Amino acid sequence: MSTLLVGFDFSLAFDKAPPKSIIQNLIQQQPYNAPWLIDMLKRYLSPIIVINKRYSAIKRTPNCGAPQDGTISHTLWNVIADEAIIILSKYGIPVAYADDLSVRLQA
Fold this sequence. Notes:
The protein has about 110 residues and is an alpha+beta fold. The chain is built from four helices and five strands. It has a three-stranded antiparallel β-sheet with strand order 1-5-4, with helices on one face. The protein has a two-stranded antiparallel ribbon with strand order 2-3. A hairpin with a 2-residue loop joins β4 (about 95) and β5 (about 100-105). α2 packs across α4 (about 75-90).
């Protein structure tokens, strides 16, 4: 029996995850996610007001997920990668950690 391991490393995966995709995937997985969690993440990923050193307010809208070393970034990426993991599980045994994903296939 032969085994093939295919690995994927998503460069800057946490930084490039669009907030809208994260929220949409959370809503699609609704039975597994509490409504309060979705509301909390909507607030986390929504526009914020930043006060700079000159005390002027600037509205910032996040256009990407979370910083690479952020506490919540792994969870947000898993929400995005969940669909790929489900699809790949039909062909082999997927293993995901942070922004790395590998699939073990046996022939």
